[in-house]
Design brief:
5-stranded mixed β-sheet, about 65% helix, 3 domains, Alpha-Beta Plaits, 19 helices
């Protein structure tokens, strides 16, 4: 059996049995919140889950994710189908995240494995609850394959946990920590220091780098994603910075790995500086990534790069000097009614994005004269003509 195969391969069955099995699984998946609650209650019998550092909300959420993924795998158990491939990838990713999270929380491995293997008893009890007497033989034929799936899932969690504990051990190495701190310190690196850093972290002379930073609330997701990427052979250097988390990746040369790294980072709420050419540039890249992460808003759902976030950084720097560009522009529009103000702002933002009156009119389904009138109205109110580059830059600083 392939080491990544989760082992859910039932004997061939008739179409009627397969359909009934899927009906039972769908009943359970429709009741996931209650099942996760029952898991959390039963998990309190495990010491680390009763009095340890894991919040009950976390226990319920991870239980919901893992049980749902195992049920999806059980429902479409043929791994040769596209659905089966996706389900197996998903359950492996969940196993990796849980292993990392519990390793970072310093949960004992025995406690973790006890909790993970509760998945089988919970799923089995729920199947018994929703099944009818006519389903007895179906449950018997499925029991072993379901147990194998949970067992392989538990093995994956264990492997991820042990890998992360080794990463934590290496991070705690005084020499490694010292070199990493030196790498992200703004002082220039000596030739000898560059050699030591390359040797320690496995960097090559012509490597390019991607830096990601997450502040407190988003740090765990970055940490877990870095661990999942490690399992795929994409290794980054992780480092705690206060309540935040920093990860530095040497950008993979293999196209598929490079794209997977970019896709993963793009889905995280992090500040990102990519295509860093030199070791000496990593210190400033780290600082910039941290500033970008600090400028993320509640509406941001993915990574923020300098190309999209430069205006936020500039606005914050000006505010530190006592110049609040946004407040100035917003005060000028204070006298407008809600709908008029919203329409004016929408048009101005559209023009800043497209730079064309005709294109803005087409997108907003209005006459180009309407757009021109709004541009003039904005200039009258604020003194800023967004068709003039210098004025447009100020509005970008205010609103982007």
């Amino acid at each position: 059996m392939h080491k990544d195969d989760l082992g859910l391969h039932a004997a061939p069955e008739g179409a009627q049995a397969v359909e009934r099995w899927r009906e039972l699984i769908d009943l359970l998946r429709a009741d996931l919140d209650a099942i996760a609650e029952r898991f959390a209650e039963r998990a309190r019998s495990v010491p680390a889950y009763r009095t340890g550092p894991i919040p009950q909300r976390d226990v319920r959420q991870t239980a919901r994710e893992s049980i749902d993924a195992l049920l999806a795998l059980a429902r479409d158990h043929d791994a040769s189908t596209p659905e089966g491939v996706v389900n197996e990838r998903e359950i492996r990713a969940i196993a990796d995240r849980i292993g990392v999270r519990r390793a970072r929380a310093d949960v004992a491995l025995d406690d973790l494995m006890s909790a993970v293997r509760l998945d089988f008893s919970i799923i089995w009890d729920e199947l018994i609850r929703v099944a009818e007497p006519r389903d007895a033989m179906l449950l018997v034929t499925r029991a072993n394959s379901l147990w194998l799936a949970v067992d392989h899932y538990a093995d994956r969690v264990r492997e991820s946990y042990l890998n992360e504990r080794e990463v934590i051990r290496r991070e705690a190495s005084a020499a490694r920590h010292e070199l990493l701190e030196r790498l992200i310190h703004p002082a220039p690196l000596s030739s000898e220091m560059r050699t030591r850093i390359r040797d320690e972290f496995g960097f090559r002379d012509d490597d390019h780098f991607l830096v990601a930073f997450a502040h407190a609330g988003d740090a765990q997701a970055l940490e877990e994603s870095a661990a999942v990427l490690r399992r795929a052979g994409i290794t980054g250097i992780t480092h705690g910075r206060g309540a935040g988390r920093l990860v530095i990746w040497a950008v993979p040369r293999e196209t598929g790995h490079k794209q997977r790294l970019i896709n993963t980072v793009d889905g995280l709420r992090v500040g990102v500086v990519d295509d860093v050419d030199e070791l000496d540039d990593l210190a400033s890249a780290t600082h910039t990534a941290a500033r970008l992460a600090a400028s993320l808003t509640q509406s941001d759902r993915g990574a923020l790069r300098l190309t999209e976030g430069w205006a936020r950084l500039a606005r914050a720097a000006l505010r530190e000097e006592g110049v609040d560009i946004r407040a100035r522009v917003d005060r000028s529009l204070r006298g407008l009614r809600g709908a008029d103000r919203e329409a004016l702002i929408h048009t101005i933002l559209g023009y800043l994005e497209l730079g064309s009156v005709s294109q803005v009119a087409e997108r907003e389904f209005c006459h180009r004269n309407t757009v021109l009138n709004r541009l003039r109205r904005f200039e009258q109110l604020t003194g800023l003509d967004v068709t003039v580059p210098d004025d447009a830059a100020l509005v970008v600083l205010a609103w982007r």
